[in-house]
Amino acid sequence: MKKSKLLIMISLLTAFMFGCSANTSNEASDNNTGEQAEFTPEGPIRYIVGFAPGGGTDLAARTVARTLNESGIVEESFAVENLTGGGGVRALMELSNKGDGNTLLQSVDIYSPMYMEGSKLKLDQFIPVAQVANNSLLLVVSKNSEYKSVDELFNAIKEDPGKVSIGLPAATDTVEVVKWNEIAKSYGIASELKYIPHNGISEVIPELLSGRIDAALLVPPVAKGYLDSKELNALAAMSDERLEVLPDIPTLKEQGIDVTFYRPQGVFLKAGVGEEVVAYWENALKEMTESEEWKTFINNQMYINEFKGSEEYTEWMETEGKNYSEFLKGKK
Q1: How far is CA 153 from CA 147, 158, 163, in A?
Q2: Beta-strand (E) ranges in 134-245?
Q3: Per UniProt, which keywords does this protein have (predicted)?
């Protein structure tokens, strides 16, 4: 009799424990299929910049961090870290190897080394979270240039490609060359343009002012002082619409050339951090771009205040990266 009672008690206890286990499993299942847990960053938040302190990308990152904090959007502090080398490659490698939801990277343009043959870096190793600002370029010539319009410049190139020299701030395998080639293609120019590489834009400007090179592309903050002093003349803005800061400069599109050139500032995360992490930073950055402090920064730097969320920003990166990859294949 005692044995029978003991068996009954064990059976009841087993059934109770199984029921608790089933309820717990059901609750866990509900949690997994229901609303995702909210992400909260843990400070200090590491903010990587692949370029030297004081440059445009570094300044953008530090302003993003300060604005997020001072606007109360993100309470945790930021630690901006400059990891220079390889045109941003060192910083990308650091994010890929050690990144998490508390590690951001300030991005600019596309990373051309990512598309070079043998590169260990690919875009799918990262998540472009948001574009926080945009920047376009101006096609400029010296004040004494014989070319007073884009038509005059490229018709001269078409007639004699070796006559017109184009100054580059870097080598001849950059995105900038892709854009020059696209303009040339619209004029039916198939031959190689005469490119003169330099070590940075600071070398290009005196060559342009002296007339030793005929044309170059400059961002508005660099060009504006020379335009105001009439030392340079802008033939076109490479944006979809006229720039608010330089409204008198016509776009290439207005002149019948469907070519644009943008160098957006954005923020990357490491791939695989989780949708809730991406959503947190995307929303925080969007709110930041609507703040007065950020708008003041945008105006002072002559940026375009244009926000893109992760999906749209990623699509832009993929499209520009594909175009650049095709250009590199054509150079082999």
Answers
A1: 5, 9, 10
A2: 138-142, 165-168, 194-197, 216-218, 232-237
A3: Signal
**251 and 268 fall within a common domain:** no
At 51 the three-state DSSP class reads coil
Q: Is 327 helix (H, G, I), strand (E, B) or coil?
A: helix
User: How is residue 318 written in tokens?
Assistant: 């993929």
Total number of domains in the chain: 2
Reading the block at residue 308, the tokens are: 């893109």
Q: Which domain holds residue 251?
A: 138-255
pLDDT in tens, 6-35: 333 333 333 333 333 334 334 333 443 345
Q: Give the CATH number of the domain where residue 173 resides.
A: 3.40.190.10
Residue spans of beta strands (DSSP E) within the chain = 45-49, 78-82, 103-108, 126-133, 138-142, 165-168, 194-197, 216-218, 232-237, 265-270
Task: Give pLDDT tens digits for 199-208.
Answer: 999 999 999 9
